[in-house]
Amino acid sequence: MGTDTSRIRDALLAWYDAHAREMPWRVAPADVARGVRPDPYRVWLSEVMLQQTTVAAVRAYHERFTARFPTVEALAGADDAEVMGMWAGLGYYARARNLLACARAVAARGGFPETELELLELPGVGPYTAAAIAAIAFQERAVVVDGNVERVMTRLRAIETPLPAAKPEVRAAMDALTPAERPGDWAQAVMDLGATLCTPKSPSCLLCPLHDACEGRAQGIAADLPRKAPKKAKPTKRGLAYVAVDPLGRWLVETRPPKGMLGGMTGFPTSEWGDDPTPAPPVAADWREMGEVRHGFTHFELHLAVMAAETDRNPERGHWAVPDPDTLPSLFGKVWRVATKRPA
Q: pTM for this one?
């Protein structure tokens, strides 16, 4: 092991011991040193929730989930609709479907597997999540790379290849530094450094424990890294959303098909989404346009014209219910606010 590698590991782990962020799913480094193992269920749940979502947003969801489902077995036995409702607002709803599938697979096998390769066999568990669980929960030496790690490694090693082409170089840099001892603490230390000091804009280089070892800082390019390839413009899809209310004050909602965008979620009926959508009202009524909502998905922007009506007729699609607007997916929360003229 080179002197540079040893110095970097020692400096960052010492910083982590003093400055580790407190999180509901995390075991403090001092407790890990005493042999306390993180709960793989809580680690797994946090990693699934944190995909494309911030720690600040996830904290409350994680606490609600673990209060309602304290074990993976409890989650495995939960009703799909309840879990999907509790997930509402976190986005990327395929994760919620995979969450249930994975929980049931883990419960069926009697617990979480303890190696990265076995974890990869679980539904919805990809390379990053498998490595994170293996390192953090089971102390297996696994190479954990997320967005924070990419930023720290590109700056530390002055990797100027634009992302995503730089991913193999980033992984190699993280692999060279990942220790056999304390691999979970190491992964979390790099992620914490990226989240608190080595931030996307205005990194706090003078406070960084790797200040003297950072090649990007030495070359004066740290703040410009990682470089990124130009983003392609997202296409726009259009559609209509239908918000109907009956004389009893119930709203017309439907459960979306299990596959596709917002699969399995409850929301207001819509037309197909495309370039020139055909109106598809779910019930005969005097529909009026209330406005438009815009919502960004990973691969496209969606513009929905919001149609509202009052009717006592039986719907051709969906069913009457009194949904809690706070449990609707964020897209349909926007639709509801436009239809009812509620403030955002």
A: 0.76
